[in-house]
Amino acid sequence: MYFLTGWPRRLLCPLKSEEEPFHVQPSSQRFYFAVLSETQLSVWFSRAANGYILLFDVVGGGEDKYLYEPVYSKGSRGVKVTPGYKEEQCAPALSLEMKRPIDLEAPITSMQSLQEDLLVSTADGYLHILHWDGVSNGRKAISLCSVPFSLDLQSARGGLCLDLKGVYIRDMTYCVTLDGFAVVLDDGRLGFITPLANRITADQLQGVWAADVTDGTCVAVNNKYRLVTFGCASGSVLVYSIDTTTGSMQLSHKLELTPKHYPDVCNKTGAVKLIRWSPDYSVAMVTWECGGLSLWSVFGAHLICTLGEDFAYRSDGTKKDPINISSMCWGAEGYHLWVITSREETELVENMEEAPPQTQQAGILQFNFIKSALTVNPCTSNQEQVLLHGEDRLYLTCGDPTQLPSGSSESPHPHNLPHGGEGSPTHHPSPNSTSQGLSTLLGYKHWHVVQIHSTYLESNWPIRFAAIDTAGQCIAVAGRRGFAHYCMSTRKWKLFGNITQEQNMTVTGGLVWWNGFVVVACYNFIDRQEELRLYLRSSNLDNTFSSVTKLHSDTLLLNVFRDMIILFRADCSICLYSMERRHDGPNPSASVELLQEVSMSRYIPHPALVVSVTLTSVRTETGITLKAPQQACMADSIILNLAGQLIMLQRDRSGPQLQEKLPFCPPVVLAQYVENVWTTCRSNRKKRHLLEALWLSCGEAGMKVWLPLFPRDHRKPHSFLSRRIMLPFHINIYPLAVLFEDALVLGASNETVVYDSLQGPREGRESLEGLFPYCTVERTSQIYLHHILRQLLVRNLGEQALLLAQSCAALPYFPHVMELMVHVVLEEEATSREPIPDPLLPTVAKFITEFPLFLQTIVHCARKTEFALWNYLFAAVGNPKDLFEECLMAQDLDTAASYLIILQNMEVPAVSRQHATLLFNTALEQGKWDLCRHMIRFLKAIGSGEMETPPPTPTTQEPSSTGGFEFFRNRSISLSQSADSIAAGKFNLQKTFSMPSGPSAKGSERWSKDSDCAENMYIDMMLRRHARHLLEHVRLKELGCFSAQLGFELIGWLCHERTRVARVDDFVMALKCLHKDFLWPFPVTPAGSISSPFKNGHRRTVLSQHLLKSQSADSLLNSDMDTVPPQAAARNSNHTWLDRLGALGPTEPTEMDTALSHGGPQTQEAFLSPLTNKTEECSIGSATDLTETSSMVDGDWTMVDENFSALSLTHSELEHISMELANKGPHKSQVQLRYLLHVFMEAGCLEWCVVIGLILREATVIKQVVNFLDSPEVPHETVQSVRSGLLGVEAWASTDCLGYKPFLNLIRPQLQKLIETSVEQIQPEAFLPGASNSKLAEPQPGGPSAEDSRGPALLGLALPLEPPRGLGTEDGGVPEEQEEQAVDEGVYDCTLS
């Protein structure tokens, strides 16, 4: 409610004196303060006892009218226009003239000012009543012994009940709303004296006293809440209310430091010295004999204490002496606390070097506060936003982040700057930028700070009211006169353009926003009339743009509900008005119409007791669920906070329905000790529990919610079931706003920063920065949903709890809500010293099983709880072994890992190992590599006995961690080299086959020194088993991830398994699996060759009937670009399409026309010639030219851009290029396949090398493998497997995927070599009849290296394999019938998967 900010100021009196001030007292409006020392009395302008009564006349100055005058800039608003404007801003020069003293013949113990009288108590037990004006005729004396005291007024009539002989009044205070005096007697007893008539006379006074209290020290009264507070010698503050029926004093609550929060000082404070209520009576400041300040809300919520933390300790840990206070009082509107320190304190603080020891300047400390707007203007819009205001700035927690990007730019004065100090050290809280998905109220840690316009402040200080709209974009403030408003989006203030209009009105009942209008209850000084005005926000601030409604009585409170205004007036009546926004002119206007007046004088003893008034749709009637939708949002009830009593008046709908002018039923008391009320006019059918509830703040008692109860599924409600229920719950923050849909409470708290290390004591004087920490205000929030759910379960309202929880299940912190509920109940029940007859934990556990996050909730709660409580927890929720198995069944491995920690601590190691093995295998199968690493460490810890260091629960697996192999951590292979260069330079297959067949040396050193440990062998066995499983099922991608993520030595293991599981039984099936696993597309034919796209459900491809005739031996373009093989043959030759584009040149249209003019199919010979164009030097896009930094899928496109302009491409060539792109897989898959190729090469797994070479269409790989098959180290089974596998792929490609045919034709010489070396004869029908070209022989051994030549390039018709007998011929001729058959059978099925 109130929060300290910055450092306190030090005010120095201009006159030096030997005396120290010991008392400060404000005037009624708190604009002037009288400061008293032994022989001096000074009067301060706020902006900026020996037995004698000394009366002074305060006289205005003579020639010097003002001590301080404001300096205005030229043309300042209002100086010349408004009469008396300048005079009001000056600090007047006052002189004090003493009248004759009055001798009361006894020491004075206390004085109290009344309206016309001065009440004085003396040490001889008398009360003296003095008149201010006529001293001589107004003196009366009343003996305290003549006042009857008793426990209540009824028994007081029987005579004297308390012996007061020799007793006098130590301290007393007058309470206006109770019309009596609260007194503390010198023997420590507490009393309340009530005059029975208007005049205070001896025979008209009666007193009641509080039983069992004898250590009273001081007293203060709260006029708004009718509370009497007494300080005690024990350090506690007792708060009493007066029973209206009997007049007895009832103890309401206590204000005291608790050992929980202040164990060191709670019993060492000494007696309470002073109590001071703030001007709005919402907080009380307390100080003790031993020093220190403490702030409490009206019903006991503790806000600030300077006896602990940074107030009590320096940054080096040494303890500071608490500040000792002799007098204090609140400044105007509660923005300042004026404090006079004791003599010892002053000598420490104020010892000035230049002053002589005997004279010093009087020192007054002024503490700065900011307060909630709810303290004086509790309107509905202020209840959903946190709005704090200081004397010159506003603090907001709202705003659109798109319009309010940063905290530092919100205002030239961030909230953490000290007032008036720009160079002081500050503490900037970091904004929380990760919060998403909730209202912007939670999006930031910092405040939006708005500096109030200085022009408005200088003439209208202090700010009295502030209001914010429901969207949090517009703010209005009202000071002494007029008002001003601010827009967050434009960051501009609007002030009255006519200063006279501003100065001729003052806001009396508050202000509130409605539909783009500022609604103001004000007093018009010109007409001397109370008015209700509505000003349009978008227009200039001027009376010509306002709607004015005259009122008959002073307005004390103002609020809005939908399109209705509710006013509470000084005659204790309530007025309801309707508002309508009209668009009948250039600017929107508003019309106001009186609906109803309700007199409350029967129920309200004094108008100042009403804290807030609210219109709401909340009702108590039985038909909550039967209300029509439009009726559910009607203003059905008036809710009054009457001095902490919450009173509701419902509309009486039992009689005839007369629209809005329905009578109200008699008031019903809903709750006691209420400080604030929150309700909303919004509706949401999915969250009716939260939006149709009434939320109450009750000080020390926490919060309460008046919750509606709905029958489930629209069933008829039970007759015995109440329709609403009041549920109390405690929170750890002071609530300032309620977010209804988000189930959150927003608040603020004081934080401190110590700066005493920056500057040490100077010449015996410690700076204020060293004495006090710098105070900031932090935003806070708290979840309350788990409290409500628990309260419902306690009351056997599980069905209602389930409905409420299901409506909030989408909230991002709902899992945390469930954890909190389990944790709180578990802590209370498991640590209870007494047996619990009806434990709640089983009910809570059963309730949580209704939600899918049950397993996570239990284990997270257990891991945040002491081990000693686990048995109690799992006795209620179930065996952790069963819960672990449920997690595995639900595939929730991370949660299962958390349960493993529980099992490790609760079960024997054998059980932990069994469950860990189960989880390890499952994690391996699902590729949860982080979890696998944790499980390996966990299993090793079990084996080595490290039971006391369980592994942490693994975090959620990131998607990127399983997407690719982390190949480059432990290996130095360069993936930018071709397969030939790898084969030649990096490794030797001969060496590979001579490697031992067991695990490599690296594998034997993978686990630590204790490699022979049984646990390590056990883990190795599981890893090898999983690798075998992956390879058997052709899951090479997972095998690579598995090896890279877990450090599994794949090459050594493959060497061991080379003749077993590392064999390839079915090349076609393996090829298909790789295509699917690596998202690698099957090679397809160009679209132009499709004559009949769909026939019998299969795609049919037709070879083009037209071939281009080659005119020169060096021309590479010897066939139509639209035929089947080009895109495959061109790529798989290890020369990419771009290698050849520069050599091709533009195709002459005459050649194309000539080729198309031939009617029948013709077969042309393909002539291959080496490339001599410069393009070869910078050829890109090769399947082996891989770069990690490539931005494209299959290579760098920068060179394409460089060379593209030099290329003249035909439509066919562009289509050829597009087919090249379409037939390549992702770049990452290419990197992964090449790494696996390298691994299989090193391990000597030649079958897998062939399969990967096929999918990459790398002829050099096939060539290398076939050449090595001649080695005697290669088993005969491997040779047979490679040969039969290639033949199987050839047969499959001829029938199901023609895209592979060009590459198979390219490696035809290698396959021919395999067949020739075979002992067995392969049947001719194993091959399709086709044409062979002798020009396609493999490059000569003496020719250029494979890397230079990149193999032959084939851009002609697909040439199927010949029968074995014709493979070696030079002429390349094909029988005529075979040629025709090849053309006739040119329609193939192409299956794409």
TrEMBL record:
SUPFAM superfamilies: NHL repeat. Residues 786-944 form the RIC1 C-terminal alpha solenoid region domain. Gene3D superfamilies: YVTN repeat-like/Quinoprotein amine dehydrogenase. It is found in: Membrane. InterPro entries: Ric1, RIC1_C, WD40/YVTN_repeat-like_dom_sf. One of its GO terms (cellular component) is Golgi membrane. Residues 399-437, 1125-1164, 1330-1393 are annotated as: Disordered. Residues 1373-1387 have a biased composition (Acidic residues). It comes from the Eukaryota. Residues 424-435, 1351-1367 have a biased composition (Low complexity). GO terms for biological process: intracellular protein transport; retrograde transport, endosome to Golgi. Keywords: Membrane. This is Protein RIC1 homolog. It comes from Oncorhynchus mykiss (Rainbow trout). The lineage of its organism: Eukaryota, Metazoa, Chordata, Craniata, Vertebrata.
